Amino acid sequence: MGSTDVNRRDLIKRAAAAGLVAAPAMGVLSACASGGGAGQEKVEKAEKTDRNPLGVNKSAPLEVVIFNGGYGEQYALDAEKVYERDYGRVKHSATQKIRTKMQPRMVKGNPPDVINNSGGENMDIASLIEDDQVADLGPLLDAPSLDDPTRKVRDTLMPGTIEKGRFGGEEMYQLNYSYTVYGTWYSKTALERLDVEYPKTWDEMLAVCAKAKKQGLAGWTYAGKYPYYLTFAMYPFIAKIGGREVIRAIDNLEPDAWRHESVKKAFEAYHELQAKGYVLKGTPGIDHIQSQTQWNKGRALFIPNGSWVENEAKETTPADFEMAVAPPTGLDSSDAMPFGTIWAEASEPFMVPAKARNVPGGMEFLRIMLGKESAQNFTRLVSALSCVKGATEGLELRPGLASAMKVLEEAGDNVVTPRIHDWYLQLHKERIGGAMAAMMAGDITPNEAVERCQRATDETREDDSIRKYKHT
């Protein structure tokens, strides 16, 4: 992170300002404050050619770190084999503790060449970018695509992928490899057994949950230990009620954004699920895997989640489950946006650290992942869309993914893409997620949850140490 004469106190200050030393609620990493060397020496670049457009040194090793979560690691291992056909060997590792394992290395200046910065312990990339710790992926975007040298990589990406990787400028720092459809997930079989259809209005949702309760079933469960999962349904619900401009105001940290009437109505609706006993008992204390398992066992009808869930929950999903996703249930006929409105976006972030030894190799690895061979392999393995256009052509899709594609197609232009989780990670996960958790546990009222969210937003807006972003 600088010259060798940086002392320990200065290093701590710089790391804290960049968000590299986590706040107490995120888990203090004392190891991040040690070291302070000049960083690792970069490998010498090779000459750029048609077959090697990024100038990868074929004698240089590559290090890749993958988040071993809902998508597993096999898709990356397979892409690494493709890389090794033409370039150096790949050192591979996988973990669910990205922040714990990677932050110390980022601070010390010896990061790997590619990081899949995902999961509940992902690093705050906005802070990393602010501290010049992440490489601009412009050379990757302008390189010829793996399958068609007449097309640049940028021209092969799904709409919104490039924009999602930007943070206040034209540079793209983050490649979001998957294309995720968020919403309310359910079992078609479970609804058929209950003799109900997926509810489109909140009165219908309450009626379905009441019928389920009479059968000894819960209407809902969610990842209580990671309550930001609730936002996968809550953010598009808010947009449906009040329009996409409400989400933009929340993203922009505007005063009174959370006090908008649509937010209050959305919070009141979800709180009613808790108040009427329609949430699976014990939900506030379980994690995403446990909540998905309970859902798979038929103990709850609905769960807010993303399209990675089909792969993540496959070990506990019954053969006749018929997994499906639907747009979050709307409020009523007064909604500003139609029922089909969803949250969908490029997700599952990858980055190439600026201080990596083999930056060209890191970008070449991502170029390989964006080739048709790797993109189709990803979909086959994990039942998820990639950010590569047309990559599902000719593939047989599992029920959940086929449902997600159908929902995405039917949404048309009615797709919302909140940015608060990218721009202000701690605000999104801890402060807003925490307020929703307290409300759904019955500890605070919807109005109190609104005020907590607004207070946290105001504090973030007024904190000069945090870089601010705005929709343009």
UniProtKB/TrEMBL annotation:
NCBIfam families in the record: chitin_NgcE (TIGR03851)
Gene Ontology annotations for the cellular component aspect, listed alphabetically: cell envelope
Any one Pfam family match given in the protein's UniProt record, by short name: SBP_bac_1
SUPFAM superfamilies reported in the protein's UniProt record: Periplasmic binding protein-like II
Protein species of origin: Streptomyces taklimakanensis
Disordered, as annotated region: 453-472
Signal peptide: 1-33
Keywords, sorted A to Z: Signal, Transport
Gene3D superfamilies cross-referenced by the UniProt entry: Periplasmic binding protein-like II
Protein name: Carbohydrate ABC transporter, N-acetylglucosamine/diacetylchitobiose-binding protein
Similarity section: Belongs to the bacterial solute-binding protein 1 family.
Keyword set includes Signal: yes
Subcellular location field: Cell envelope
Keyword Transport appears in the UniProt entry: yes
